[in-house]
Amino acid sequence: MFNIGQVSRQTGIKIPTLRYYEQEGLIKVMGRTAGNQRRYAQVDLDRLTFIKHGRDLGLSLDDIRELLNLSANPDQPCDKANKIAARHLEAVQARISKLTALAEELDRIAHSCTGTTVGQCHVIEALSNHALCKHSH
């Protein structure tokens, strides 16, 4: 059995987040010792590692909850898990595309400034007038 501090160190999840995951029903509410400490078993650490890895990949808590439910039924088809991963991949690719356009626009604005004072600064001018931007963002 592990106390909450040990679980936090082993999983890399902060203690308030562990409590939040309990409140959200992602992990069961832990029983308390006579000293009023939460105690976790290895199965709880494994579940928290799964949750942490999902969060590190940017999955929502709802997606993680659904994947946890799916993992509890290992004999069912994995098409639902694949759909969750594919949907998340699409969202990540869309964010990458938007960030790439944003980086290009910032690069263009920063390198097109030939002013010597703020009053002549293209960066300030572009931020003041969206029409000067090449991309929509």
Shape: elongated
What is the CATH level 1 assignment of the largest domain?
Mainly Alpha
CATH architecture of the largest domain: Orthogonal Bundle
The H/E string reads HHHHHH
What tags apply to this protein structure?
61% helix; 137 residues; single chain; Multidrug-efflux Transporter Regulator, Chain: A, Domain 2; mainly alpha
Explain what you see:
- With 137 residues, the chain is mainly alpha-helical.
- It folds into two domains: 4-71, Multidrug-efflux Transporter Regulator, Chain: A, Domain 2; 79-132.
- Helices cover 61% and strands 0% of the residues.
- The chain contains six helices and no strands.
- The protein has helices spanning 4-11, 15-23, 42-56, 61-71, 79-111, 122-128.
- It is elongated.
- 10% of the residues are buried.
- The mean pLDDT is 89.
